[in-house]
C-alpha cells in the first residue's frame, strides 16, 4: 500500500484586509461583565490589554457568525450588521460567502465552520442541483479517515487498456500505455492568468509539494521555473510544437489546444510528439454542445487525456440557443455516456474545468463522469484575490503580494488544498468509497434535482397521470 497522502497545513494569515460579512459592534450599554469572552469559543471578545476592567473592540476577523454572544449578553449590548462591501463582491456564482470560505480555508487549512448552520436553499443551478448520497455515514469507520483508515485520492492521466493479451507462453503481449499518477484529483490551470513571476513560481512550487501539475502556456514559462519542469504541463498550439522540442522532451505531460487541424490529423501529430519525447498528451478543448462526439472520435484515434474547459462560472461556452444554460456537469455526463456507449470509456482520461469552486465540485464532477478536474480561480482567491462578476469579470489581486515571502504564498495554497483534501476524504468516508477512482461516473451516489423533479411532478404537470 502506498504511503498515506498528507498535506501539511499551518495557520498562515495574510495581511491583505479581508472583507467580512458582519461587523460586530459593542454598544455603550455594555457593563464589561465579560460573559461574551466565555461564550465565544473563537475568542472574538477579549478584555483590553491596557485596562482589563473594560472590553476591547470585538475581533470580527475570527467570528463564525454563531450569534451566541448576542443571545447571551445580559444587556443586549452586541449588534451585528452586514458589510455592504462584502455583499458587493463576487457575483451570483462566486458568491461573497464562497470567497470568504476560500480565504478562510487558505488561512487555516481546515474544513470551514459556518457557525449558524446552513440556511440557504437546498437546490440551485449547476453543481447545486446535485446531492450526494452519504448514507454510509451511519457506519463508523474503525478509527476515522484521518487515522489508520486508508482512502486513496490518487488518479491517473493516460490511456488504460481494456484488457491484457498474453501469448501461448503466458508472456504479456499488450504494450502498456504511458500513465502519470498524481496524489490529488486535480491539477492547477494557469492558462487564463499570466501572473507576476513570484506568484507563478509559488504556484508551481505548491504543485511540486502537493504532487500535482500546473498547466501553463509555453510562452509564459519563465526561466526561474525550469527546475519545476516535472510539475509543469506546457500548453502549446499546433504551430508551437516544432519550436519547443526541448520543453516537450523534459515534460511528463503536455497540453495541446484543440483545433480542426488537430482533430483531422490527430494520429500523425501524436506520432510526431512521441518521437520528440515520452509524454502523455492532453487535448484541451472548449465545453461546446457537440463535445461528446468529438471526444469519442479523438479517443478512437488514440487520445490519452481530454480536458474539457467551461467558462469561469461552469457554463458551456458555446453561445448557441441549444446549449444556452447548460453547465459543465451536463457536458461531463454527456461525454461519459457517449464513451460508455462506445465501450471506450477506460481508454481516455477525462479532465474537466470551469466553475470548480469548492471541494464538493471536485467530487460532483467525478460523480458525473470526470476522472479529475483542473482548478484555477480558487488558487488566486487563496492568495487574497477578489473577483467581481459584474459588469464584467474582473479580478483584483491584493497590493504588495509580490513582496510576500515565497513560503507564505506556497503555504496558503497548500492550506487550501489541505482543506479540500480533508473534505474529499470526509465525503468518501461517508459514501463508503476507499479509492477516488471509483467515484468516476458513480451516479448511484448522486441525486439530480432536475431528474427527481421530472420524475415526481412531470406526470402531474404534463397532463399524463397514468
Ligand atoms: S456580555 Fe455584553 S455586557 Fe457583558 S461584556 Fe460582553 S458585551 Fe458587555
Ligand atoms: S457570533 Fe459567535 S463566533 Fe461571532 S463573536 Fe459572537 S460568539 Fe463569537
Give the helix/strand layout.
Layout: E1 22-26, H1 35-39, H2 68-72, E2 78-82, H3 84-87, H4 96-108, E3 130-132, E4 155-157, E5 180-182, E6 186-189, H5 197-210, E7 214-217, E8 232-236, H6 245-250, E9 253-257, H7 260-264, H8 266-276, E10 280-286, H9 291-300, E11 305-309, H10 328-341, E12 349-353, H11 359-368, E13 372-375, H12 377-382, E14 386-388, E15 394-396, H13 406-431, E16 446-448, H14 449-462
Parallel strand pairs: 6-7, 6-13, 7-8, 8-9, 9-10, 10-11, 11-12, 12-13
Antiparallel strand pairs: 1-2, 3-16, 4-5, 14-15
Helix pairs in contact: 4-13, 5-13, 9-10, 11-13
The structure holds iron/sulfur cluster (2 copies).
Residues 24, 39-40, 42, 44, 63-69, 115 line the site of one iron/sulfur cluster.
Task: Explain what the structure shows.
The chain is an alpha/beta fold and 466 residues long. It is 31% helix and 14% strand. It has 14 helices and 16 strands. The protein has helices at residues 35-39, 68-72, 84-87, 96-108, 197-210, 245-250, 260-264, 266-276, 291-300, 328-341, 359-368, 377-382, 406-431, 449-462; strands at 22-26, 78-82, 130-132, 155-157, 180-182, 186-189, 214-217, 232-236, 253-257, 280-286, 305-309, 349-353, 372-375, 386-388, 394-396, 446-448. The strands form five sheets. An eight-stranded parallel beta barrel has the order 6-7-8-9-10-11-12-13. Strands 1-2 form a two-stranded antiparallel sheet. Helix 10 (328-341) links the parallel strand 11 and strand 12 (349-353). Helix 4 crosses helix 13, helix 5 (197-210) crosses helix 13 and helix 11 packs across helix 13 (406-431). The longest helix has 26 residues, at 406-431. It is globular and about 85 Å long. It starts with 21 loop residues before the first strand and ends with a helix. The mean pLDDT is 89. The protein binds iron/sulfur cluster (2 copies). Residues 24, 39-40, 42, 44, 63-69, 115 line the site of one iron/sulfur cluster. One iron/sulfur cluster is lined by residues 26, 30-36, 55, 73-75, 77-78.
